[in-house]
Amino acid sequence: MRGSPGRQAGFSLLELSIVLGIMAMLAVAAVPRYMEEINRNRSRVTTENTQAILDAARAYRLSKGTWPGGASCINAISEMVSQSPAMLPPGLDVNKYNNTVSTSCTAWTFSVDQSIVEDWDGVLASNLPGTSIVNASQNRIRSTIGIPGSETANDAKLSRVAEQNVELNRMRTNLLLGNNDIKEVGRIEAVNAAISGLAEASQLRVNGVSQFNGEGTFQDGISLQKVVQENTSCPKTGAIARSSTGVILSCQSGII
């Protein structure tokens, strides 16, 4: 409070104590919200980084046929960082909670282990598919994926690589391509084909009966391989064949 003339102006000890008390209460109220925001950001970044490691390991397995990091995958992160081009950025071996991120694998699975903080291990376990709490006292979680195409969630997806389970390579419904092209096809086996536009082929072979409903134009000669004897019976009027010497014959009223 302000003093009388001749006395020094300022705050009394009581006033200062009140101000400090108010500031302390504000700080106490703000700190939990501040820490929650920090942990929320940590959780988000850790989720993204963990998913990046799992995605890179899956891509590595697809490309090379093995999990990264040796037989037990201990060095998986560093190996994926060292690829050219790099499959992961550096620095993902320590998470945002300043805890080491470790990797391991079996013949069928790849796992990422890391410790979080209290109450937030469950959040990450919920946000990351295939993740569970493996050590509650250490807030340790484990995220696991299977070999590409083996996860239950992929049973309804068509695999782009050859699988031991051929059902993962088999389409069970109509394939709609939105009028886009199919290229790099080696062989097509089909029961029926309905083509509304132009069909181009360097060679066309048809086994069995064929029917042309429109006009046909041939830019080269036609070789008839059906050989018949003149003045013999024939099954269908209008059918044409040739004699053994190459004379073209036609079926007229049952006689050729």
UniProtKB/TrEMBL annotation:
<keyword id="KW-1133">Transmembrane helix</keyword>
<feature type="transmembrane region" description="Helical">
    <location>
        <begin position="12"/>
        <end position="35"/>
    </location>
</feature>
<protein>
    <recommendedName>
        <fullName>Prepilin-type N-terminal cleavage/methylation domain-containing protein</fullName>
    </recommendedName>
</protein>
<dbReference type="InterPro" id="IPR012902">
    <property type="entry name" value="N_methyl_site"/>
</dbReference>
<keyword id="KW-0472">Membrane</keyword>
<dbReference type="Pfam" id="PF07963">
    <property type="entry name" value="N_methyl"/>
</dbReference>
<keyword id="KW-0614">Plasmid</keyword>
<dbReference type="InterPro" id="IPR045584">
    <property type="entry name" value="Pilin-like"/>
</dbReference>
<keyword id="KW-0812">Transmembrane</keyword>
